[in-house]
Amino acid sequence: DAIVKAVSISKRYGDGTEALSDVSIEFRRGELTTLLGPSGCGKTTLLKIIAGLLPPTDGEVRVNNKTVYGPGPERAFVFQDFALMPWATVLRNVAFGLELRGTPKSEREDVARRYIKSVGLAGSEHKFPSELSGGMRQRAGLARALTVNADVLLMDEPFSAIDEQMRRKLQEDLLELLREEKKSVIFVTHSIEEAVYLSDQIVLLTRNPGRVVKSIRPGFDRAAG
Ligand code: ADP
Ligand code: ADP
């Protein structure tokens, strides 16, 4: 059953660019779907529309069968550059989503510490973003998205700054965590390898205008990986 549906989404930007044309996709609960395609095919545009950060020109986004018109607590967006607060420690950055929701300090820090550990950043709780490598910042951004406990994680190339060796370890750890917590993930990449390795569903997009070419279920046997 679908947790998120993109229904006949079109997006035309102010300058006339037709970024998406009649895109319909169903995202099933607990699955990881990859949006795959060349630069400019509308992956980021679609992800932002699903997140409610950008309105579609036509069509609608449904979450749990209800049309949504903006962001909501059931969807968490992981930005490409993570936009960590430079003046705050890793712990405070990761706990920030819960701080905004008014969760008491000890409780939100417990949750944050758990996710900091799960992304392999244990020991860096009291460091500042400037003291971290690019990959470590990226992992802090992931941990922050995980703490807010949204059902759906929307990730725009979340592994782009992480070196290959760390990436594989992180992806494996993260997949296990996401499956344990039954998260649904919509993930943008232009790496076919990453898509095949990680996805339950791969949606192939083409550009000018952005359209769905094909939707594939790779059926990768993770247990054998
Ligand atoms: P992708 O993420 O697949 O690279 P994007 O969603 O970023 O694709 O962009 C899809 C198309 O929309 C591209 O042609 C891009 O140049 C255009 N585009 C993206 N953002 C804007 C914007 N703010 N204004 C005008 N055109 C845009
Ligand atoms: P092993 O060392 O266990 O034999 P491989 O390195 O051969 O595993 O990888 C198995 C398959 O999974 C290969 O097709 C590889 O391309 C793919 N793969 C492994 N790790 C990743 C990753 N992090 N991103 C994308 N594809 C990956």
Automatic annotation (TrEMBL):
<keyword id="KW-0067">ATP-binding</keyword>
<keyword id="KW-0813">Transport</keyword>
<feature type="domain" description="ABC transporter">
    <location>
        <begin position="4"/>
        <end position="225"/>
    </location>
</feature>
<comment type="similarity">
    <text>Belongs to the ABC transporter superfamily.</text>
</comment>
<dbReference type="GO" id="GO:0005524">
    <property type="term" value="F:ATP binding"/>
</dbReference>
<keyword id="KW-0547">Nucleotide-binding</keyword>
<protein>
    <submittedName>
        <fullName>NitT/TauT family transport system ATP-binding protein</fullName>
    </submittedName>
</protein>
<dbReference type="GO" id="GO:0016887">
    <property type="term" value="F:ATP hydrolysis activity"/>
</dbReference>
